Fold this protein.
Amino acid sequence: FIFSDVILKLQSKAGEELTIDTENLPTTFHSLNLYKNKFKNNNDPTKQWVNFEKQNSRVWYQVELFSDFTKNYGRISGDIKKNTEYTLTISNNWHPDGQDSDTVSKS
């Protein structure tokens, strides 16, 4: 399966919407050269995840391999104001039972 949930928006109670960039995120596994140290039989770490469709899927498939490694799902552009409540809206696109997608909001 491919993790396909989508962050739709991050919005303050006052209606200000912040953009979440989910492309071109920093720090991929092969750029950190972690394969060289963690997996002895890996000859060419640059060929890992070649032409991978969704960069964010890497987080879900490999997070348990390196207990000290974290990777952001997205980068918020704009200023998050102190003492302001925001609502994050996510579209849940993966249902193993074939249901339609849901939209979930959490403040």
Notes: Confidence is low (pLDDT under 50) at residues 28-32. The chain is about 15% helix and 25% strand. The longest strand covers residues 6-12. Residues 23-73 form one domain.
